[in-house]
Amino acid sequence: MTASQRIWLSPSAYDRLQTELSMLRELIATEAASDSDENQVAVQRARQARIQQIHDQLLNAVVGEDPPDDGVAEPGMVLTVRYDLTGEEETFLLGVRGAEYGDLEVYSVNSPLGEAIVGARPGEQRRYPVPSGDAVPVTLLAAVPLGMHQPAAG
Q1: PROSITE patterns in the record, alphabetically (predicted)?
Q2: What is the pLDDT of residues 11-64, one digit of tens each?
Q3: Which domain holds residue 103?
Q4: Pairing verdict, β 61-63 and 7-9
Q5: What is the C-alpha separation between 100 and 9, in angstroms, rounded?
Q6: Domain total for the chain?
C-alpha cells in the first residue's frame, strides 16, 4: 500500500482495528521473547508485522464517510456484479480485507477483481485475471454506498 492511498473503513471496522492494535501492542509489551525460543520470536515478528499493517491502514483511513452515490465502483461501495461466463451474480463490499462488515463479503481494491472493477459504471464489462491465466469477464450491475445498501431478504 502506498502512503498516499486512502482506504475506506466503516466506523465499526475502524474501532475493531483500533482494538486489535491495542491488544497486539499489549501482547508485545507483556510477552518478552527470548532469543533462544524460536517459536516465540516468530510469533513476535508476526505480531509486529500485523501491527505495522493495521497502523498503515488506520493512518490512511477515511472513516465513516460514504463515497458519493454516483454508481461508480470504488472503496466503500457495495457492488453487484455478474460473472458473464456463468451468469452468476454476487454482491460484495469493495473495502479492506481483515475488517469485518457483518455478513457482507469484502473484496480488496488490490485483489484481481477489485483492481479490474474500480472505476466501472453499471453495465460496464471488465476482465480480471484468474490463476489459470485466463481473463474472466465480469459486468458491474450496481454500485451503492455501504450506508445505503439494503441487504437481500433471506
Answers
A1: GREAB_2 (PS00830)
A2: 777 888 889 999 999 888 887 655 567 788 888 889 999 898 888 878 877 776
A3: 77-147
A4: parallel
A5: 10
A6: 2
